[in-house]
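hi! just following up on the protien thing from before. the input was this:
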Amino acid sequence: MTELRSSPDPVSSSIAAGLLGSPFGASSRFASIFFAGTVLFGAYALVICGLRLADSAMLIGYVAGVALLCVCWYFAANRFAFMREVLVRERGFLIVGVVLCAMSYPFLADGPYQVHVMAMAGIFALMALGLNVNIGYAGLADFGFIAYYAIGAYASAIFSTRLGVSFWLCVPLAGLFAAALSLLVSFPALRVKGHYLALVTLGFAFIVIQLITNLEGLTGGTQGISGIASPSLFGHSFRAPIKLAGITLPYQANFYYLVLACLVLGALVCARLGRSRWGRAWAAMRNDEIAAEASGLSLTKLKLLAFGTGACLGGIAGSLYAHMIGYLDPSSFRFIESVFLLAVVVLGNFRIAGVIAAAVVFTVLPEKLRAFDDWRLLIFGLALLGIMLVRGRRMISTSH
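and the predicted 3d structure came back as:
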């Protein structure tokens, strides 16, 4: 049978040649950077405009416009391959640009509360990165990840309020403590997988939530733990505003930048892990455990490392939350948060950038839907259901 080949589009080819050109051509490199920078600036401008909108009618129009723009971009990227190629080529430039845009956000935010919401989005994204290690890298179905978040938060709160440990020690200790307790899930995980592993992790989450509710002498029970110390750095309290070049930022910006730094560090660690020999071993285990074990890989070590790494990131996120809010109670750690985390990882296509972006959307979207207070939970629930139906099959699958 004769193979049919489509001829390359002359317009796309000419533009691609101009933008990509020779790898040593200064003009082609400048053109590709300019294109990537234009895309980044346009996306950031859209995000800032959306975050500042409060009127219901304008918000509906904004969402419709962004949806139409995304559809147009999708078809354009499929029509002109150079658009994707340029963005892939300038990935380093885009990453640096995104970090710089994130650093500038407190200067453009519409009030302290918006800065606080974005700080919470960063904490949620750090948690999602930890879950992505379990599901996306190792293929381990974890439906109770909120347990590590709660363990890290309460461990940090107890270290701070009862032992007087500094915040800068509480954060790594909380991560290590959560990683250590993840062994309680890791050993059963050596014997089960798929749906059964999901049930084990789900049961672990319920046990942790019940323990922090009933161990009143340690966790305060339903009364919670209050008076958790705020961090300070070089004599500057994180409860004090930031004054920089005549500009005063609200104290929430302190926590925002702290969370941003931890998120960037967590993303770098996850990226490095994904490219390491451990990441390749996780991929082999995720695709076929029997074949991976037959090739000489230790599934025990791989699963312990995956659960420990994910739990450590979740524990650090919990520690940041505890010291930012200053108060903990069991109602802060609901099982529904694990469902949101799963949806974030699936929506993010199991990729670091996608997971972070999805976490921001899932944190900001409920806040923006407050304009539709009578319908916002229904709208959010339908959106969540649609995402899980369309892309949720991989959560309990070992295939990538």
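Confidence is low (pLDDT under 50) at residues 1-8, 10-19, 394-400.
The radius of gyration is 23 Å.
cheers
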